[in-house]
TrEMBL record:
Organism for this UniProt entry: Apiospora arundinis
UniProt cross-references to InterPro entries, sorted A to Z: Methyltransf_Superfamily (IPR050508), SAM-dependent_MTases_sf (IPR029063)
This protein's UniProt keywords: Membrane, Methyltransferase, Transferase, Transmembrane, Transmembrane helix
PANTHER family associated with the record: METHYLTRANSFERASE, METHYLTRANSFERASE TYPE 11 DOMAIN-CONTAINING PROTEIN
Region (Disordered): 26-103, 436-471
Name recorded for this polypeptide: Methyltransferase OMS1 mitochondrial
Residue stretches spanning the membrane: 112-135
Bias (Low complexity) ranges: 33-60, 72-88, 446-460
MF term (GO), any: methyltransferase activity
Organism domain of life: Eukaryota
């Protein structure tokens, strides 16, 4: 902007100046021999002329520039002075011979904004190009999913989960992840399972109205629902699908401590304020919640937070329901040792045909340049955040699809340009096909305690080999 402004000012002054004279040319040719210097002089001269010629200059605007030779017809220039002045002679404005060239210091003073902007832009571009070049030098380490040098711990190794959570606040908003979380949570209806829920960063976007219905008068609930989903509901609240129950699973109790704290804050009507302390400890609460099989049970089982390895068969929905309507997972495939196994487990607990598995993940981009950066920084990122951000999510999904009978990719997109194609939104569903000899489990472990079933059912579905694709 500043440079555009400076350019316009420059052009404006140039067009409004009178023509050059041979004496000016001669004087300028004395001032400097290099072209850059002479061009600086030309500009400073014009500025000087502008301030000294005043009104007279405005009348010269319509005048056509005269050729150099016409001016010099009475006194032809010497061959040396012509060589210096001829290229610029035709655009030199006329000015009184007493006008002095503007000094360079004055030039900097009057054009500092444009010069500063151009310098800053050049510096940014240079730094960006250099860092890209440095980051992409040499051979990038290549890892096979699940065989990375450090096996995922399932928990960020950053100072603490609190820091992990805090760190994400600004960056997620900046890169549009918060918006994607909101969009994803709006899809969560019926019995909902969130896998690898972490610190509960999706919690505030779920619709808790049905879960907390007993705390709200029916009329008020309808009003709030209509306000939220104003589009064409025509007041028929009964038809709206709502989140009926919520089950969250994660392997890390420290992450779940924060998840529970967030739950207390976001579930409306203070519905969890009595049940949860301000600084909840997952381990302590789970110990007092014997019915929740490895977790915390709230609002008479409508909200459950469970601890366990999601690579083992996942817990069934609360009593009386067979499978989940929605299975959500955000940034989980990058965090577990065996992401394909995770998709197997999610597919096993979602309602066939109508149920939805919705994933928001990050991994390899469209662009190899970006992938080079991801590869080089992957180990450091893992050490800090506990996940491998250079995994090929598209390939993981393809492998899972080739292995799980009926698994269908409903949607696969890379939303937003701010993440440079590294983030993916995936929706999956399971069609009703019964594969011969399939022993896919999931959905019924809660009766005997979810954690109790770990290990025994671990190999009930033959685990896929990473990178392996069925033909
Ligand atoms: C990158 S964080 C994402 C957390 C959360 N889903 C979010 O969007 O902020 C990955 C989470 O996966 C959890 N996790 C890793 N391995 C797991 C496993 N095998 N079973 C269940 N959770 C796991 C971690 O504890 C961590 O909370």
């Amino acid at each position: 902007m500043a440079s555009v402004y400076a350019h316009r000012a420059f052009m404006g002054s140039a067009t409004s100046r009178p023509m050059s004279t041979p004496c000016m040319v001669a004087r300028l040719s004395k001032v400097g021999s290099t072209s850059s210097r002479s061009s600086l002089q030309q500009r400073s001269w014009r500025r000087g002329a502008s301030s000294s010629s005043g009104k007279k200059n405005s009348s010269s605007r319509s005048r056509k520039p005269l050729p150099y030779r016409a001016e010099s017809s009475t006194q032809p220039p010497s061959s040396s002075s012509q060589a210096t002045a001829a290229p610029s002679g035709s655009i030199f404005p006329k000015t009184p011979s007493s006008a002095t060239p503007e000094p360079v210091s004055q030039l900097f003073r009057t054009r500092w904004l444009g010069l500063f902007g151009a310098g800053a832009a050049a510096l940014c571009l240079g730094t960006f190009t250099a860092s890209f070049w440095i980051a992409n030098r040499g051979e990038a380490p290549s890892y096979v999913t699940g065989c990375e040098p450090v096996v995922p711990t399932g928990r960020p190794a950053i100072e603490s989960p609190v820091d992990f959570d805090r760190h994400l606040d600004k960056s997620e908003w900046r890169f549009g992840i918060t918006k994607l979380r909101r969009r994803l949570a709006a899809e969560a209806t019926g019995h909902v399972l969130e896998v690898a829920m972490g610190t509960g960063r999706n919690m505030e976007f779920y619709d808790w109205d049905a879960v907390t219905a007993e705390y709200v008068a029916a009329g008020e609930r309808n009003r709030s629902k209509l306000a939220k989903r104003g589009w064409g509901t025509k007041g028929n609240i009964a038809d709206l699908l709502e989140m009926e129950t919520f089950t969250g699973v994660d392997i890390s109790p420290a992450m779940l401590d924060i998840g529970l704290r967030r739950l207390r804050q976001v579930v409306p009507h203070g519905a969890l304020e009595d049940a949860l302390p301000k600084q909840p400890s997952f381990d302590q609460l789970a110990a007092q919640s014997p019915g929740a099989s490895g977790g915390v049970q709230l609002l008479r089982g409508k909200v459950r937070v469970l601890q366990g390895d999601a690579q083992s068969p996942l817990p069934a929905p609360p009593t009386g329901v067979d499978k989940y309507d929605t299975v959500i997972q955000t940034f989980g495939l990058c965090s577990v040792r065996d992401p394909t196994r995770l998709i197997h487990n999610m597919a096993a607990v979602v309602k066939p045909e109508t149920g939805r598995i919705i994933l928001l993940e990050h991994g390899r981009s469209w662009w190899e340049l970006i992938n080079g950066l991801l590869d080089r920084s992957a180990k450091g990122h893992f050490e800090r955040f506990g996940c491998w951000w250079n995994r090929d999510i598209e390939h993981i999904v393809e492998v899972a699809q080739s292995q799980i009978p009926g698994l269908e990719v409903v949607e696969f997109q890379r939303p937003g340009w701010t993440t440079l194609g590294t983030h993916v939104w995936v929706e999956l569903r399971v069609r009703n096909v019964k594969p011969a000899g399939s022993q896919a489990t999931g959905g019924n472990e809660s009766s005997s305690g979810w954690l109790g079933s770990l290990g025994s059912s671990w190999l009930s579905v033959s685990p896929p080999k990473n990178g392996e694709k069925k033909e």
